[in-house]
């Protein structure tokens, strides 16, 4: 134990997507700040989430286009994927992001980076088990928890006896899986499933629910299913293994058993993509009086205040939508409230997101099923991508656009864009929603030809017929 307790104006636990900009801003304002991080600066997004996956997905898209080159009249010859080079490229991008972030932290006056694992001793005091083995006590009048989540491990008999990968370890494989079994048909399962299929692996996705991407509308989920099956991915719906074992005499084989009626699925590698759990058990939150919900997520009000005065929680650890841009918005709220006493809340903010399969699924606002359950009066506009000029010209016709418009106000209340650059087109719709424009502004707006955005004219014209 270090003998001197250090005191700060604020301590942030976890260098996630909200915590890192928050410590930099507070230090900039002259606060004496400590950032405690137990693994790597940059948190999940930079080291294990968005950055590495989107870098590898870019490689997978190139592999896919090479395989399709003859459709464009280009003869590319034999091609293969060098997974080690793919991984090397991913490591370089991650390292550049992480080191950039680390340098900004280290160079910031008033800011101390403490590398170790923090847990509460009291409501203003933390003990940090430092990486080099010692422990240190630190104290502050303001404490912000930004500790994120970790991959969940489902309770399935036999799982402990096989080698199972999570979203982090699957990006560090020595070789391409011959047959990857993906358990879970959510964001992680679909992004990795398609990626490895495009790298050349056989892929089977096993999903417990009756559709992929459980929260999405059925028409969108069905189209996603068709697209993935069209690329040769096996998808089992309403399937949940009851037991897992390894095939006798073959260390590298996993076998998933289902109920008696279904055949077992055997593969070379297993990826668990069944959700994430909050990083709260190590924090000793009860010593600070900070309450968690039944799943361990920290309870906060709309100002991100926990049940303990001057202790806040931001990002994934508070539950709710788990995206980098949401954690970053928590930072904006936190900073304005701490520095300028503005009393901002996270109520009624936009929650856009993109599932980075190819074609992408960009989403904003209500789904149709949410709009129905809220009793909203609305109209639905749809347009298949094979009626979009740019999509035909670029031979990327898979997908559809779907938008919901309030019947009384003509305002757009939700959209799902499943198509190439779906995230960018969704963002254009989001800007219209942010500006509270009626759908007619997009129907009648002049957009450059031939862009994907131009098809916003056509999708909303559908409401007039
Ligand atoms: C495979 C994958 C792909 C993803 N892709 C996307 C995407 O494309 N777009 C998107 O918006 N989101 C994506 N996400 C989600 C995104 O990564 C998270 O929403 C985001 O990182 C949340 O950040 P956060 O601020 O909550 O904390 P995190 O980024 O999770 O960081 C928390 C930090 O706290 C540290 N920590 C935990 N406990 C302690 C402790 N006791 N002491 C000290 N430090 C501690 C951890 O080591 C970690 O560094 C993806 C996630 C995964 C897993
Ligand atoms: N593009 C992005 O923004 C992006 C990408 C990756 C991850 N993320 C974030 O990470 C979080 C975690 O993603 P995820 O895909 O792990 O979780 P998820 O909750 O999105 O999906 C998990 C799926 O696994 C299924 N499942 C659970 N247990 C199962 C079992 N035993 N057998 C079969 N199926 C089972 C569930 O029905 C669910 O559909 C997401 O909520 C998201 O916020 C975001």
Automatic annotation (TrEMBL):
<keyword id="KW-0274">FAD</keyword>
<dbReference type="InterPro" id="IPR023753">
    <property type="entry name" value="FAD/NAD-binding_dom"/>
</dbReference>
<feature type="domain" description="Pyridine nucleotide-disulphide oxidoreductase dimerisation">
    <location>
        <begin position="351"/>
        <end position="458"/>
    </location>
</feature>
<dbReference type="InterPro" id="IPR004099">
    <property type="entry name" value="Pyr_nucl-diS_OxRdtase_dimer"/>
</dbReference>
<keyword id="KW-0670">Pyruvate</keyword>
<dbReference type="InterPro" id="IPR036188">
    <property type="entry name" value="FAD/NAD-bd_sf"/>
</dbReference>
<feature type="active site" description="Proton acceptor">
    <location>
        <position position="449"/>
    </location>
</feature>
<dbReference type="InterPro" id="IPR001100">
    <property type="entry name" value="Pyr_nuc-diS_OxRdtase"/>
</dbReference>
<protein>
    <submittedName>
        <fullName>Pyruvate/2-oxoglutarate dehydrogenase complex, dihydrolipoamide dehydrogenase component</fullName>
    </submittedName>
</protein>
<keyword id="KW-0547">Nucleotide-binding</keyword>
<comment type="similarity">
    <text>Belongs to the class-I pyridine nucleotide-disulfide oxidoreductase family.</text>
</comment>
<keyword id="KW-0520">NAD</keyword>
<feature type="binding site">
    <location>
        <begin position="184"/>
        <end position="191"/>
    </location>
    <ligand>
        <name>NAD(+)</name>
    </ligand>
</feature>
<feature type="domain" description="FAD/NAD(P)-binding">
    <location>
        <begin position="9"/>
        <end position="327"/>
    </location>
</feature>
<keyword id="KW-0285">Flavoprotein</keyword>
<dbReference type="GO" id="GO:0050660">
    <property type="term" value="F:flavin adenine dinucleotide binding"/>
</dbReference>
<dbReference type="GO" id="GO:0003955">
    <property type="term" value="F:NAD(P)H dehydrogenase (quinone) activity"/>
</dbReference>
<feature type="binding site">
    <location>
        <position position="275"/>
    </location>
    <ligand>
        <name>NAD(+)</name>
    </ligand>
</feature>
<dbReference type="Pfam" id="PF02852">
    <property type="entry name" value="Pyr_redox_dim"/>
</dbReference>
<dbReference type="InterPro" id="IPR016156">
    <property type="entry name" value="FAD/NAD-linked_Rdtase_dimer_sf"/>
</dbReference>
<feature type="disulfide bond" description="Redox-active">
    <location>
        <begin position="45"/>
        <end position="50"/>
    </location>
</feature>
<keyword id="KW-0560">Oxidoreductase</keyword>
<dbReference type="Pfam" id="PF07992">
    <property type="entry name" value="Pyr_redox_2"/>
</dbReference>
<feature type="binding site">
    <location>
        <position position="316"/>
    </location>
    <ligand>
        <name>FAD</name>
    </ligand>
</feature>
<feature type="binding site">
    <location>
        <position position="54"/>
    </location>
    <ligand>
        <name>FAD</name>
    </ligand>
</feature>
């Amino acid at each position: 134990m270090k003998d001197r307790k250090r005191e700060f104006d604020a301590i942030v636990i976890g260098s996630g997507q909200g915590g890192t900009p928050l410590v930099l801003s507070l230090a900039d304002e002259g606060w004496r700040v400590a950032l405690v991080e137990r693994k790597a600066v940059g948190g999940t997004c930079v080291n294990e989430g968005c950055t590495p996956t989107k870098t590898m997905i870019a490689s997978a898209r190139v592999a896919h286009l090479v395989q399709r080159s003859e459709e464009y009249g280009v003869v590319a010859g034999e091609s293969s994927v060098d997974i080690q080079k793919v991984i090397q490229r991913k490591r370089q991008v991650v390292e550049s992001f992480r080191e950039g972030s680390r340098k900004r932290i280290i160079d910031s006056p008033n800011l101390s980076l403490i590398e170790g694992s923090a847990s509460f001793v009291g409501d203003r005091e933390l003990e940090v088990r430092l990486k080099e083995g010692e422990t240190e006590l630190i104290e502050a009048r303001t404490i912000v928890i930004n500790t994120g989540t970790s991959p969940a491990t489902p309770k399935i008999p036999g799982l402990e006896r096989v080698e199972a990968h999570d979203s982090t370890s699957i990006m560090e494989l020595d070789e391409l899986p011959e047959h990857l079994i993906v358990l879970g048909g959510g964001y992680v399962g679909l992004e990795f499933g398609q990626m490895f299929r495009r790298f050349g692996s056989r892929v089977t996705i096993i999903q417990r629910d009756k559709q992929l991407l459980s929260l999405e509308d059925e028409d969108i989920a069905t189209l996603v299913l068709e697209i993935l099956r069209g690329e040769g991915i096996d998808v089992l719906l309403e399937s949940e293994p009851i037991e897992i074992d390894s095939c006798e005499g073959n260390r590298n084989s996993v076998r998933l058993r289902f109920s008696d009626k279904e055949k077992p699925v055997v593969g070379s590698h297993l990826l668990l993509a069944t959700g994430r759990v909050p990083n709260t058990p190590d924090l000793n939150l009860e010593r600070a009086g900070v309450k968690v919900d039944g799943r361990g997520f920290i309870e906060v009000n709309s100002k991100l205040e926990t049940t303990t005065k001057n202790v806040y929680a931001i990002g994934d650890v508070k539950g709710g939508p788990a995206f980098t841009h949401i954690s970053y918005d928590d930072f904006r709220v936190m900073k304005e409230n701490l520095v300028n006493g503005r009393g901002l809340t996270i109520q009624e903010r936009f929650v856009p997101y993109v599932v980075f399969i190819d074609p992408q699924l960009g989403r904003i606002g209500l789904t149709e099923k949410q709009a129905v359950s809220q009793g909203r009066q609305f109209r639905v506009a749809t347009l298949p991508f094979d009626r979009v000029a740019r999509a035909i010209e670029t031979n990327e016709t898979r997908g559809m656009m779907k938008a919901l418009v309030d019947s009384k106000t003509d305002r757009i209340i939700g959209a799902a864009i499943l198509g190439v650059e779906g995230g960018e087109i969704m963002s254009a719709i989001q800007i219209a929603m942010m500006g509270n424009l009626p759908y007619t502004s997009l129907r009648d707006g002049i957009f450059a030809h031939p862009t994907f955005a131009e098809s916003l004219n056509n999708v909303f014209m559908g409401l007039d017929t």
